[in-house]
Amino acid sequence: MTDEEINALKSDAIPPAQNEAKVEGVGVTKAAVPAGKCFVSAMLAGAFIAFGALYFCVFLGDATLPFGVQRVVGGLCFCLGLVLVLCCGAELFTGNMLMLCAKASRRIGWAGLARNWAIVWLGNLAGALVAVAIVVLADIPAMNGGGVAEAMVSVAAGKVALPPVALLFKAILCNIFVCLAVWIGFAARTVTDKVVGILLPISAFVACGFEHCVANMFFLPTGLVLNAMGVGAAGAVTLGGVAYNIVLATAGNIVGGAVVALAYWYVYAKRDR
Questions:
Q1: Is this model's pTM higher than 0.85 or not?
Q2: Which of 33, 186, 236, 265 is at a distance of 20 to 30 A from 18, taking alpha carbons?
Q3: Could you report the per-residue pLDDT of 100-146, keeping only the tens digit for each?
Q4: Which of 184, 175, 174, 242 is nearest to 208 (CA)?
Q5: Are 84 and 48 in contact (CB under 8 A)?
Q6: Which ranges form a coiled coil (predicted)?
Q7: Is 147:61 a contact under the CB 8 Å cutoff?
């Protein structure tokens, strides 16, 4: 049997040092993906994360639920998005911060890294906006007597009202959790391992109210559209507020992802003099 076949039969997770090498290899592959395929794959990821966000909002549509139940179970509902990304395959901007491992080892350049991040960010946005249109046209917000619509606007209004410092650091914390979940996904050998490994980090970031730029590409436009249709207080969600949140959340997510990627690169891949 080959080494690859032997590794495939192992039941334990890939050790951290080997996982770092795997993450680097994936980063090299991602940097070389043709732009068209990269964009479509990113659209899928944007839609997948939107599906998780939708599941979260539908659950929150019952305003009678206790706070703790809303946060924990809602967080578990949101996990659907990253499960689909990692198990079905798609390009997610926040997870692609781990490409910095390959950059730190000089296996890819800044141009390849920036190209991937730009295409994936735009593709995630496009996929999320397509999901927004489908959800609104399907009249899903009308569920529970309009309770889901109220929840969607409430979530969006809370996000655009965050002070800049709090928003930035919520985004940093968010992508620390997300990149750790993606790291676990790379280390997993089975679909079951991936799903179980994702649950705690992702549900934790949602329960704590952290800010994920790709999820907000669904939450905020949905809230904007519904608010314009008369749901919630007039002007609770504005286009300027949407842009403000997504720009700062993106910046914070980059920092948080860099912390995880560069820390693991330093521990497992940096060569001492």
A1: yes
A2: 33
A3: 999 999 999 999 999 999 999 999 999 999 999 999 999 999 999 99
A4: 174
A5: yes
A6: none
A7: yes
Report the residue count for the chain: 273
